[in-house]
């Protein structure tokens, strides 16, 4: 099986529940109702259930209404074709590669605890190393001893050094040491795992902003990526989290994890539409090979097959 086919297959498996909700729901709707105004009303409800969000659901149904009035939609297959086209048009601008044009390229990985943030750091390190990049990890989530240990385990697993200090240490000091080490060792990529919650009275966003300043002082322009890790099953809660982080930290993209078995695949559309952020990576399983660049065509094909 080719790499492209393997990615598409993992997406189909990961989006299985979302596909059944949207594809099978659409088939049921089309089997019992003509493509008319009442059909469009029920279709909008289906799109909302698929977590595409009110604005996107309304936009899609309005576009279908226009196609219907123009006589370009006359069969169930026409409806599916229009929806697939609209999904692809919406998601194509969301696909952008990671900015790895700097030496080192500094990537901050952000998100709330439990979203898969530290695991994403490890998987990303493995993926970049497989592409021939030299990588360094930094455990700046010093408020969780388990987080530091987890990142060290990933470092040992993929053969990447981890810059760390003891639990409770100043995260800014870890970032300072990590950027300095990355520059001295001339590594290609530095991946920084940041805190998702603080066990102090200091607000999280202030702490993350401080880390950004520390990195920029050592290396102007850093961090080059500020990636928010979102747990797909959180749906609307995940969107609220992304809005908060984006407002305070200035995100450059999203990594969507845990698409394996979730019925919230439509949240990808909503995140891009409402936040205007690219979807840089998606995770469809537990293995390091399951973290892949976002491919709109493969995603739409998995969500609403032909």
Could you name the ranges where pLDDT drops below 50 across 5 or more consecutive residues? Answer: 1-5
Please indicate the percent range of residues in DSSP E strands (runs of 2 or more). Answer: 5-15%
Shape descriptor reads elongated
Task: Give the helix tally.
Answer: 12
The biggest sheet, with number of strands, parallel, antiparallel or mixed sense and barrel status, is: 8 strands, mixed
Q: How many beta strands in the DSSP annotation?
A: 8
Rg computed from alpha carbons, rounded to a whole number of angstroms: 21 Å
Q: Strand arrangement, largest sheet?
A: 3-2-4-1-5-6-7-8
The average pLDDT value, as a whole number, equals 87
Secondary-structure element sequence?
HHHHHEHEHEHEHEHEHEEH
The helix content, as a percent range, equals 40-55%
Structural class: alpha/beta
Task: Note the gap between the termini.
Answer: 21 Å
């Amino acid at each position: 099986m080719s790499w492209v086919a393997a990615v598409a297959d993992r997406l189909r498996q990961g989006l299985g529940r979302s596909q059944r909700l949207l594809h099978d729901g659409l088939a049921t709707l089309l089997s019992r109702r003509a493509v008319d105004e009442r059909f469009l009303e029920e279709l909008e409800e289906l799109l909302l259930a698929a977590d595409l969000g009110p604005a996107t659901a309304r936009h899609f149904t309005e576009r279908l209404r226009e196609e219907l009035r123009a006589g370009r939609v006359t069969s169930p297959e026409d409806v599916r074709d229009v929806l697939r086209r609209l999904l692809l048009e919406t998601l194509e601008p969301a696909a952008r590669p990671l900015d790895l044009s700097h030496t080192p390229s500094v990537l901050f990985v952000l998100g709330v605890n439990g979203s898969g943030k530290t695991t994403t750091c490890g998987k990303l390190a493995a993926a970049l190393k497989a592409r021939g990049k030299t990588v360094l990890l930094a455990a700046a989530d010093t408020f969780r001893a388990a987080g530091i240990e987890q990142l060290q385990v990933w470092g040992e697993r993929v053969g990447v050094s981890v810059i760390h200090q003891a639990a409770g240490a100043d995260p800014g000091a870890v970032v300072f040491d990590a950027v300095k080490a990355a520059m001295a060792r001339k590594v290609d990529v530095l991946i920084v795992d940041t805190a998702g919650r603080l066990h102090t009275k200091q607000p999280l966003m202030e702490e993350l902003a401080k880390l950004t300043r520390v990195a920029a002082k050592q290396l102007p322009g850093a961090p080059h990526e500020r990636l928010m890790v979102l747990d797909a099953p959180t749906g609307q809660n995940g969107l609220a989290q992304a809005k908060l982080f984006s407002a305070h930290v200035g995100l450059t993209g999203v990594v969507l994890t845990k698409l394996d078995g979730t019925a919230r695949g439509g949240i990808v559309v909503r995140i891009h539409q409402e936040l205007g952020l690219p979807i840089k990576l998606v995770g469809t399983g537990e293995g390091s090979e399951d973290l892949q660049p976002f491919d709109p065509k493969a995603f739409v094909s998995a969500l609403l097959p032909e």
